[in-house]
């Protein structure tokens, strides 16, 4: 964002008004200065853009209140993102009524309360009648307004993670109050009790109350007809058996235990569990005997199958989204993304094997994110497509896939200091010339082979995170910020192309399947060993949570979880989602895809 000529100068608003834009994103140092000069509020002129569908103002430590006129001036607003600002302690004036608003993100602010009659808008009539997703995570909320359900009766997703709540308002679980609520996340709070009335949430599919102060889980939770996923880890329950089940059993088993009355509620259940354990031991002995006698080939084949579980966007409380700017249309228009969780790179040479199988080593620019074989074969030496993998915890979404002038695009390349793209390309060209002279050849190796793909381009493609940092500069390099480490278990994958969307999807299929094979090999061959000294020096030694708590699947298998990533335009219109039902359909016979 360019610096403002004066505190009251807002060129973005003038441009949006002139071009009748439906999407507006405000962030960066210039925004900080303008908001500070305006007393911590947004300018009234912003609320005179009635065509806006998407408004995001993020990362502004000076923004303490949105300002008057928000509800009156934006009747068509579908998405309002005020993430990572300094809003608080309460919202005043009210955000509503906003009759068309579907997504409201107030995460990462300093909100302490949403008082009745303020905050989200009036309860009667509903101030946010179409609101589907409300993200209040990362604030300081101590309580929720009692009329929250009446303010937003069509709410489907409510994220309260990382606040200071000690109780839910009783109104939240009133019969028929939130008939569409399917996702409720309130991890890392101070909740002491979960009301039995939670059973009135007829559409609830996901409930995350981990790391709270709960001592009991009501048996009525088992009466939620659609509940598929629960997380109560980090609570000290009186029922120690149930506490143990929460870290090792599937949701279905936990709900059956609650339905039976929990500890001491059904003695016959305890006997049945003992019988089941005995049957399990007997079956294991029989399987061992069959394998020893050569009769276990079919079962061994089943055990050798690779499992890939696909997590749909609707099942994910915090799906990652990539917005695509129209400027990339003339540079590198096709983008496909995916999140993969469950890679195990810690044991022995697992990371070294991962890098050897997937990485193009471009010395001294060590590109720790590209698949050798895929790039050389499927990607046609990167002229058709480029693959990149990122350490997911270091990726802050939503992401923006855009194109910027070489002199404006800044990145911290892998193994180097921050540099502008123009200067990086110049450095690589000089290295290429020096390489030719030393080897007395006309050809070059490494990244230098791909510099010609940028010839004649006025803008360079880049992937930008929510902090405004460039984390990918295809087809050249990724950023040090999201570099893969030995402790990496969750990854964000991207494939870009100037040729076709189908090529991106085909390559992503091959990448995911290759990762599944490598992961299974690591699990089956837990060898000793380590990386080279040079590689080890660049890696963190702290184990990740997901590796401390693996999620074993059937027969001890640990399936990779592939989360869908939506790619949308700036107006929120879906361009592609991966993996869709049409993806990963050509998996080999030894791979099972669970959807």
Quickly describe the structure.
The protein is α/β, with parallel strands linked by helices and 595 residues long.
Write the layout of secondary structure elements.
Layout: H1 11-18, E1 23-26, H2 29-37, E2 54-57, H3 70-73, E3 79-81, E4 103-105, E5 133-135, H4 148-151, E6 157-159, E7 183-185, E8 206-208, E9 229-231, H5 240-245, H6 251-259, H7 267-292, H8 297-303, E10 306-311, E11 321-324, E12 334-341, H9 350-358, H10 372-376, E13 385-391, E14 399-404, E15 410-411, E16 419-420, H11 421-439, E17 460-464, E18 470-473, E19 477-478, E20 490-497, H12 501-524, H13 533-537, H14 545-548, E21 560-569, E22 574-578, E23 591-594
Parallel strand pairs: 1-2, 2-3, 3-4, 4-5, 5-6, 6-7, 7-8, 8-9, 10-21, 10-23, 11-14, 11-21
Antiparallel strand pairs: 12-20, 12-21, 13-20, 14-17, 15-16, 17-18, 18-19, 21-22
Protein described:
This protein has helices at 11-18, 29-37, 70-73, 148-151, 240-245, 251-259, 267-292, 297-303, 350-358, 372-376, 421-439, 501-524, 533-537, 545-548, and strands at 23-26, 54-57, 79-81, 103-105, 133-135, 157-159, 183-185, 206-208, 229-231, 306-311, 321-324, 334-341, 385-391, 399-404, 410-411, 419-420, 460-464, 470-473, 477-478, 490-497, 560-569, 574-578, 591-594. It is α/β, with parallel strands linked by helices. The protein has three domains: 1-165, Ribonuclease Inhibitor (Leucine-rich repeat, LRR (right-handed beta-alpha superhelix)), CATH 3.80.10.10; 186-265, Leucine-rich repeat, LRR (right-handed beta-alpha superhelix) (Alpha-Beta Horseshoe), CATH 3.80.10.10; 307-594, Phenylalanyl-trna Synthetase, Chain B, domain 3 (Phenylalanyl-tRNA Synthetase, Chain B, domain 3). Strands 10, 11, 12, 13, 14, 17, 18, 19, 20, 21, 22 and 23 form a twelve-stranded mixed sheet that branches. α4 links the parallel β5 and β6. The chain starts with 10 loop residues before the first helix and ends with a strand. Residues 1-7, 264-272, 295-304, 359-382 and 527-556 have low confidence and may be disordered.
């Amino acid at each position: 964002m360019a610096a403002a000529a004066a505190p009251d100068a807002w060129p973005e608003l003038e441009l949006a008004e002139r071009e009748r834009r439906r999407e507006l994103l405000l962030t960066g140092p210039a925004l900080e200065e303008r908001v500070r000069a305006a007393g911590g509020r947004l300018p009234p002129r912003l609320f005179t853009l009635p065509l806006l569908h998407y408004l995001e103002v993020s990362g502004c430590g000076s923004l303490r209140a949105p300002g008057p006129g928000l509800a009156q001036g934006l009747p068509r607003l579908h998405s309002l993102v005020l993430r990572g600002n300094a809003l608080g302690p309460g919202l005043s004036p009210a955000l509503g009524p906003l009759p068309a608003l579907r997504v409201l993100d107030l995460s990462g602010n300093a909100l302490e309360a949403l008082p009745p009659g303020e905050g989200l808008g009036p309860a009667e009539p509903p101030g946010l009648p179409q609101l589907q997703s409300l993200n209040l995570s990362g604030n300081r909320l101590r309580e929720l307004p009692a009329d929250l359900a009446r303010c937003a009766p069509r709410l489907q997703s409510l994220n309260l993670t990382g606040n200071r709540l000690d109780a839910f308002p009783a109104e939240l679980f009133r019969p028929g109050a939130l008939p569409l609520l399917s996702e409720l996340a309130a991890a890392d709070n101070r909740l002491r009790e979960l009301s039995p009335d939670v059973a009135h949430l007829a559409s609830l599919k996901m409930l995350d109350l981990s790391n709270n102060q709960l001592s009991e889980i009501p048996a009525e939770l088992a009466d939620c007809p659609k509940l598929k996923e629960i997380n109560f880890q980090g609570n000290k329950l009186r029922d120690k058996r149930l506490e143990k089940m929460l870290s090792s059993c599937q949701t279905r088993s936990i709900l059956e235990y609650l339905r039976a009355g929990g500890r001491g509620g059904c003695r016959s259940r305890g006997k049945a569990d003992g019988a089941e354990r005995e049957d399990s031991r007997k079956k294991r002995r029989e399987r061992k005997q069959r394998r020893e006698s050569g009769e276990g080939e079919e079962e061994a084949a089943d055990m050798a199958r690779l499992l890939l579980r696909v997590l749909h966007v609707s099942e994910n409380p915090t799906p990652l989204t990539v917005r695509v700017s129209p400027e990339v249309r003339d540079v590198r228009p096709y983008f496909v993304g995916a999140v993969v969780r469950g890679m195990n790179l810690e044991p022995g040479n697992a990371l070294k094997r991962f890098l050897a199988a997937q990485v193009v080593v471009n010395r001294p620019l060590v590109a720790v994110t590209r698949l050798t074989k895929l790039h050389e074969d499927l990607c046609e030496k990167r002229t058709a497509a480029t693959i990149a993998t990122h350490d997911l915890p270091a990726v802050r979404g939503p992401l923006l896939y855009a194109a910027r002038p070489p002199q404006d695009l800044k990145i911290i390349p892998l193994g180097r200091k921050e540099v502008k793209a123009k200067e990086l390309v110049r450095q690589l060209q000089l290295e290429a010339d020096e390489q030719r002279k030393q080897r007395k050849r006309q050809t070059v190796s490494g990244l230098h082979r791909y510099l010609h793909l940028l010839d004649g381009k006025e803008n360079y493609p880049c992937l930008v995170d929510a902090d405004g940092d460039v984390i990918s500069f295809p087809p050249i390099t990724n950023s040090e910020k999201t570099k893969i480490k030995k402790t990496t278990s969750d990854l964000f994958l991207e494939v870009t192309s100037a040729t076709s969307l189908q090529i991106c999807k085909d390559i992503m299929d091959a990448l995911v399947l290759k990762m599944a094979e490598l992961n299974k090999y690591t699990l089956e061959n837990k060898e000793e060993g380590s990386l080279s000294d040079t590689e080890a020096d660049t890696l963190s030694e702290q184990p990740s949570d997901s590796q401390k708590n693996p999620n074993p699947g059937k027969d001890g298998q640990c399936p990779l979880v592939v989360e869908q990533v939506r790619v949308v335009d700036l107006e929120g219109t879906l361009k592609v989602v991966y993996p869709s039902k049409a993806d990963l359909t050509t998996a080999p016979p030894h791979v099972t895809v669970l959807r």
